[in-house]
Amino acid sequence: MTVDFDSLQEAAQGLGEDITTHDKAGLNDLSTAHLREQADARDELYDFVDGLWDKTTARVPDAGARDEYAGLAGLRDLAAVLRDNAHEVLDARED
Q1: Is the dihedral of CA 30, 33, 37, 42 positive or negative?
Q2: Model pTM?
Q3: pLDDT, position 5
Q4: CA angle at residue 92 from 74 to 47, to 5 degrees?
């Protein structure tokens, strides 16, 4: 099945928006130590996926416009949401 790049990326962004409330609620239930571990793990996930994206766009400058790279772009967006959720909860707790 061929999926339009914009729609697949929008789907990943929508998924991120849809899970944010549940994700933050779960993160709030963690101890501060475990929350820091989650934030660190999510940083690592994002950095890994972002690194894949950087390597891809170095080889294929127009990757953002090509269907075969839409999954990676969407995963990068979703990883960013997960990372940001953990840091928002951690920052609020540490204030």
Answers
A1: positive
A2: 0.88
A3: 47
A4: 30
